[in-house]
Each structure stands twice: as C-alpha cells, then as structure tokens.
Specification:
- With 433 residues, the chain is of the alpha+beta class.
- The protein has a domain of 216 residues: Hypothetical protein af1432 (Orthogonal Bundle), CATH 1.10.3210.
- The protein is 46% helix and 12% strand.
- It has 19 helices and eleven strands.
- The strands form four sheets. The chain has a four-stranded mixed sheet with strand order 5-6-9-10.
- The radius of gyration is 24 Å and the shape is globular.
C-alpha cells in the first residue's frame, strides 16, 4: 500500500538513473473510502518505523473477546484522524479562517502522531509499562525525538499538540470536546464492533465547524448532529469501552503484567522479549522522560517503540509454563479466554463479600495467603459526556453570537453534560460462584 513508486527523471546512460519518489498516495479505508496522504513529510512520518509499529497495536485492546471484529489497529485510527483533520482544515478555510500551509502541516502532524505513544493493547496497560506515565506523555517524547531527527520540522506540531500555540483552536481540533480523535474513534470503533449506536455523522459535524474568538464552535444547524455525537459517545462507553467482559479480560491482563513485574523485581528470571524485559526489570518513571533519572529519554523511546501486542502474547505463552503458579495460571486463563466472572452495581461492594470470595479463591486455586488479590478485586468505572478540562461546546447562532450547548439544546442540560455516572465492579474466578 505504501510502496514507493519510482519515476526516472532522466536516463542518460553516462550517468546513474535518478529517481523521484511519488509520495502522494491514496488509501482505501474501510470507513471513509479513498483518502489521500496530504504532503510528502506526512508520508515520511507514516513510513517511519515508529508509526508503522502501530499496525501491531489493537485500537481496542481485548475488546475482540466480546466483539470479534474489533481487531482494528492504532495505525488505522491515526490515518482516519489525519483524514478528518484534512477535511476540518479545508472546511475552516472555506469559511474565511486564515490557516497557513505551515500551520496546516503542523496540525496534520500533531493529529497523525497523537496516539503514537500507545503501548501494547492500548489503554489496557497504560500507566503500568512505565509507572504513572500516560500515552500522551510518550507521544510527546516520540515527537520530540523525531523533531531532533528531522532538524526541528516538528517544532510547531509540538506547540499545537501541547496547547502552547497562540491560536488555541488548533489544539481543540486535536484534544477537545469534538476533536478529530473522537470523531474517528467513535465511527471506526462502531464500524468494527458492529455497535451501530456509536455511529456518528463525522462529515456533517466537521462541515458545521467554525472559529469564533479563537475557539471552535458549531454552526447552529449542526446541533442535531452534535447531540447524536454526545449520545453516541456515552453509549459506546457503556456498550463497548466499559463492557463488563472487556473489563474482566483487561483486568486479567493487568494482573498478569503486575505479577510478572513483581517476579522481575524479586530478581527471578522470566522469559520476555528484549523490549519488554527493559520495562519489566527496570523501574522507569516520569523523571526519566525529562532526563533526570537513571535512563535517558532516547533509551526509553528506543525500547518503547519496539513494543507491541505480540511482546505480551508471546511472553504470556511462555509464562503458562512458569514455576510461579499465579503467573502461569493467569496467563493460561488469558490465552484460553477463561475470564473472571464480573458483577456491576451502583454501590461499592462490601468488604466482607470481597474477603469471603478471596478466601474461597485461595482455597480452590491453592495459592499462598496474600496472592488472592490477583483473583478477587473490586474497582470503579465512570463515564462523562463531557471532558471536564476541555472547553465547553459553543453553538454559533444565526444572530452571530455564541451560546453554550446546554442553553440551546432541547435534549441536553448542564446536569446531563457534567454528571459523572459511576459504577462499581467485582471480579473473581468463575469457579468461586
């Protein structure tokens, strides 16, 4: 798909043939149809091994355990978000918003690389591979290392990505209430899971975008599409991203990683791929990302960009035969899809219930005291229609003034948009039922 077409520009036999590389590719995307790569430097970044790595990282972690079609990758999402950003820039220009070619390229780069810092199985192992570090932190690290390689060509993209550029609406296109990231992942995840409630009219919303006082707004006639978008996001969280079986499977994966890390910290030998070994046997934190720790940012970037889903799966296959009973048992459960039972409710589970199930698991599985926490545990999940730290959605009325969507919409009020819905879940082995 991305093979370089070589076009000879002269063929004088007394000189070597010189080739001009064609980087203006067209890709057939299953969601949007034919999309174009907008620019040579963007193509170079897509071809870079750090972006190609995203082919091997699932967009939705272990959601395919519930929805078998959900095997799409972060690579596909990155290209989809790039396509939508290209549309958004064209729309804003058509409405008289001045966007320079330099700003255009920087914004396209920022959205293309916004998820480049995702590790194996996306959100499932976030904050675990590197202690307390989000994928946004790693994305920024990788963008800075690429900026060094390309002699400062990502300077403006980094400013936009971090929200430091003076024209704030560019950052809102990347990280806001209705950014291109969300517009793509909702539509793409809906497509691949088959959950039609998540399908959103991304084209319609983008064509209704405008800028007022340096902030993104939506034209009044686009309010119904926006209402559907907010509803779709909430439904997708409960039906897909926080589906109880997804929670059970990803909790199992998290506990496998935690147990492997504990064994590694004790100095015991574990089979791992080289890249995974670096993160299992070393405690890497935020100070290392800013060159104030034991490891340099370059060392972290070099090892992290070699990690993908296969490192975890291959290691887990070997761990099924490990002498540590907890690690081998949990790994086997993951590979067999022998998942934990899970219960959801609106109130926290009682300590007595959790303790009783822990004692039962300890007896049935025959594990040492203190290890039952790997099998029986409780936590909470929450869902918001709005992102609390992002600007509110403003509607551009026909009169020329703007208004908060909660004051204009017939369907939403401030309570719906700001209320956090929290549920509690309890996981335990099925044999404890």
């Amino acid at each position: 798909m991305f093979s370089n077409t070589k076009i000879p520009i002269f063929v004088d036999k007394s000189f070597p043939v010189v080739y001009l590389t064609n980087k203006r590719k067209i890709i057939n995307d299953p969601v949007y149809g034919f999309i174009s790569i907008p620019g040579d430097f963007v193509f170079d970044l897509i071809e870079h091994p750090w972006f190609q790595r995203l082919r091997n990282i699932r967009q939705l972690g272990l959601t395919s355990f519930v929805y078998p079609g959900a095997n799409h990758s972060r690579f596909q999402h990155g290209l989809g978000a790039l396509h939508l950003m290209n549309m958004a820039i064209a729309t804003l220009r058509s409405k008289g918003i001045i966007i320079s070619p330099v700003e255009e390229e920087a914004t396209l780069i920022a959205i293309l690389l916004h998820d480049s810092g995702h590790g194996p199985f996306s959100h499932a192992l976030e904050n675990l591979i590197i202690n307390g570090i989000s994928h946004e932190d790693i994305s920024l690290l990788l963008m800075r290392k690429l900026n060094e390689k390309y002699s400062g060509k990502l300077d403006l993209a980094i400013e936009i990505f971090t929200g430091k550029y003076y024209r704030k609406f560019f950052h809102e296109l990347i990280s806001g209430q209705m950014d291109m990231d969300r517009l793509d992942y909702l539509r793409r995840d809906s497509f691949f899971t088959g959950v039609i409630e998540g399908s959103v009219g991304s084209d319609r919303i983008i064509r209704m975008l405008n800028v007022v006082d340096d902030s993104l707004v939506v034209d009044e006639k686009g309010i119904y599409s926006l209402e559907k978008f907010l509803i779709a996001r909430r439904l997708m969280y409960w039906q897909v991203y926080m589906h109880k079986t997804v929670l059970a499977s990803e909790s199992l994966l998290v506990n496998i990683f935690k147990r492997a890390k504990e064994i590694a910290n004790d100095g015991d030998d574990l089979f791992t791929t080289p890249a995974l070994r670096f993160f299992l046997y070393n405690n890497i934190g935020h100070s290392d990302l800013i060159d104030e720790g034991t490891f340099t940012p370059g060392m972290i970037a070099s090892n992290f960009t070699r990690l993908d889903d296969s490192d975890i799966l291959v290691s887990a296959k070997y761990w099924t035969d490990h002498s540590d009973k907890v690690l081998s048992d949990l790994s086997g459960r993951l590979l067999r899809r022998d998942l934990f039972a899970i219960e959801l409710q609106n109130e926290p589970f009682s300590e007595k219930r959790v303790k009783d199930l822990g004692n039962l698991a300890k007896k049935l599985i025959n594990i040492k005291p203190g290890l039952e926490d790997y099998y029986v545990f409780t936590n909470s999940i929450s869902n918001l229609a709005y992102t609390p730290d992002a600007p509110v959605v403003k509607i551009l009325l026909k009169s020329g003034r703007t208004a908060d969507i909660s004051t204009v919409s017939d369907m939403f009020d401030h309570r719906f948009l700001s209320e956090r819905i929290t549920k509690y879940f309890l996981c335990y082995p099925k044999e404890c039922r």
